[in-house]
Amino acid sequence: MKYKRILLKISGESLGGKQEQGISPDMLRYFVTEIKSIYDMGVQIGIVIGGGNIFRGLQGASKGFDRIQGDYMGMLATIINSMALQGELEAAGIKTVILSGLAIDPVCEKMSSRRAIHYLEAGHVVLMSAGTGNPFFTTDSGGALRSTEIKADVLLKGTRIDGVYNKDPEKYNDALKYETLSFDKAYQEELHIMDLTAFTLCKENNMPVIVFDMNIEGNLKKIIQGENKGTLIHP
Question: Which pTM value belongs to this model?
Answer without folding.
Answer: 0.94
